[in-house]
UniProtKB/TrEMBL annotation:
<feature type="domain" description="Late nodulin">
    <location>
        <begin position="1"/>
        <end position="58"/>
    </location>
</feature>
<protein>
    <submittedName>
        <fullName>Putative Late nodulin</fullName>
    </submittedName>
</protein>
<dbReference type="GO" id="GO:0046872">
    <property type="term" value="F:metal ion binding"/>
</dbReference>
<dbReference type="Pfam" id="PF07127">
    <property type="entry name" value="Nodulin_late"/>
</dbReference>
<dbReference type="InterPro" id="IPR009810">
    <property type="entry name" value="Nodulin_late_dom"/>
</dbReference>
Amino acid sequence: MTKMLKLVYFMILFVFIFFLVRVVNSDFLYPCLEDFKHLCQRNCPDDMIGVCSNLHCHCMKVNVN
């Protein structure tokens, strides 16, 4: 029973770390909810803006003339 419990804890930890990596890494789409809107802009390069579309964050190029 304790081995099974350790396995369950390990799986929960793995899922949590996987979600955390997705949120921090701007290469992946992640939910663009109210709490995460500041992350959308912060994870984009300086010459791009973070835009929330369909509840996902996208980095878009800005045309500066």
